[in-house]
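ATP-binding protein
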Amino acid sequence: MLTIVRKSMDKDEALKAYNDNYEYIQDWIAYIEFTITFHLKHIVKIDQINEHKLDRFKGLLIGRDEMIRLLEGMNLESETSKKEQEKINFYDSCEMIENYLEERAVVTTKAGVFLPFAYMSHMLELSAFEKYVVMLSFLRHLDKKYEKIFGYLQDDVTRKSPTADLAIKLYLPGEAGLRVTVLIQRMEEKLFRYFFLENQESSHSLERELLLDQDLFYFILDIKGLRDSSNKRIKLFFPGVQVEPLLIQQQWQDQLVRVLQDSQGPLACFIQGPPGSGKKLHVKSAGNQLKRTVIFIETRNILNLDGTLNNRQLNQALREALLHDAILCLTDFEELLDLLANPDSTGLSTMDRLMTELLEELQGRVETLLILSTKPWSYSNRKSNFQWAVLEINLPNRIERKILWENIAYNLPLAEEIELYEVANKFNLTAGQIADACQEASRLTYWQGEEVISRQKLYQACYKQVSHKLNEKASLVFARYTMDDLILPEAQKKTLNQVCNHVKYRHVVLDEWGFDKKLPYGKGLSMLFCGPPGTGKTMAAQVIAHELGLEMYKIDLSQIVSKYIGETEKNLQEMFEEAKKSNAILFFDECDALFGKRTEVKDARDRYANLETSYLLQKIEEFEGVSILATNFINNIDDAFMRRIHYVLHFPFPDEKSREMIWRYVFPEKTPLSKQIDYAFLAKQFEFSGGRIKNIAVNSAFLAAAEGKEVSMSQLIRATKDELTKQGKVVVSSDFGEYGYLLRS
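Structure:
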């Protein structure tokens, strides 16, 4: 077998392609061992010492005999003949070997054989010295014997890895001074940044051990599986890998590609969109279109909470970006936005300062940085050479949501009652959230031993995808009432049905018939319920929520309105922002606290109250969901406000006929009722609202349960007396007509 020196002198040999990566690495090993051999011939020979005196230090010291055994196969004494050795200078030999390795690598690459180290050297623009240092450190991971060799060469058995000092001595034996300083500086600039682990105690660069990053060791050996698992924080996406098709928002994809293609110089692009809006999918699709590798890494692995850069993770990401000429993409940026929002001594936020430092580190190394976030952010300190672009992915509109539901839920066993266009109308979800909702609905159905996904389970799964804080400003109302439970004049019931149809067929009117383009605002549904207390306003709101299958949150405006200027608007702003996320109905109770008619402005507070009213009107018009407002006094509502409401429902005080119907329907079916209950008498004798009738029914049921009897006129008369007394009225038995005697029993 030809030695590495002789092979490098054979021009025909240099024109041959390597059969595989293993053969290429073997030549590199031979080159490293050649330099070690030369070094051993020029150091103080340990065999000059009486080694028998060192027997007691066996295991702590390595003798020359053991070195010769370890280096067996290197031809320590005769790598070349003495005659050849006299002719060939060491440096010339190294140069020939390096040229030989380079030429064969080029020929091999052209032949279609992948040599990872040659590829790495080209992409990272490694010098001959830098290549040598990397492969020297590579040996330590390859075979345990090299640990002893390095210990011997450094006269320290505990030194199992080569140091920077040893690397220079092996590559440039006998050199010192300025040339060594220059080499150390080169190592600092690239090798120590990208190749070697940093956690070392030595502060002097010459003493630093060359601990090769394990990820690179696997890369050089071309062991893909181990390499992929060695650093799970960095995810590589290679062009050509199939991704899910873009079902919607192709125009945004085209915009991203144009931004990436047309940028002059380094580009930093901030991409903001709600959770599940497909930010990563769009980036991958753009990578495929531009034939660019993309490196994904979570922002928290690059930016530390203490306001510093994580240099090790950053350098690993940069190395991968350089290796693959890749786009670097930071994900989950929103996780750190609030934590790093505080300003520092310069007045800039910690995030602004960190972004500037990051861009400075990327300068000249990465041409494209993408930042993905669910929250908006404005970079205030644009002092780097990077162009700064901002792209926003909007929530899908109703048509797009319908397309998503039809594709994602295509194979789901949905109940016949489910209309996907209705689901798309009611839930403002992204593609990712729709996919998660489908999975969740399938799980809920399976766990309950059912085969068909019901509307209730699908809606329940949809609500689970929404993260909001509306419960901090409002209370969730469980909608249990149906249209049959509501005792109202027929005209009001027709209006309520019309209200429900307004939501159910919104996609037809707005999208299919084109009204969406004609309405710049006011695309939601707003209602005003007015009438005396207890006439069914809250109940009617629950009926709408039940009919539409939507959650409803009750907001007490008296708790939202603040005496402090600006606080009311702030509370309303926060509430509507959360409402957009919730897909829920907003039910404003006691809205008289804000919507009183103010024709006469007497002081600053009156002027400001008008601003508060206008602000709420603006928010209701911007809100694309369902909002219901309730008031006890219709005459207090401003005319301008009334014009901006879609539906106004008047809830009259129930007449005698309506009261009798309420009395008959107020008790659940399972309640034991006496057949002697005089519903007609109760309706005629007492002019109660539906709310007060409900109170009496509940109290009479508890009286009957305590007595172990069925509900009869006895309990109802006593409960009625309690209700009247609660209102401060003085009652006598004659107020109860023929049933007054029951108060004495």
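Residues 398-466 form a domain with the Helicase, Ruva Protein; domain 3 fold (CATH 1.10.8.60).
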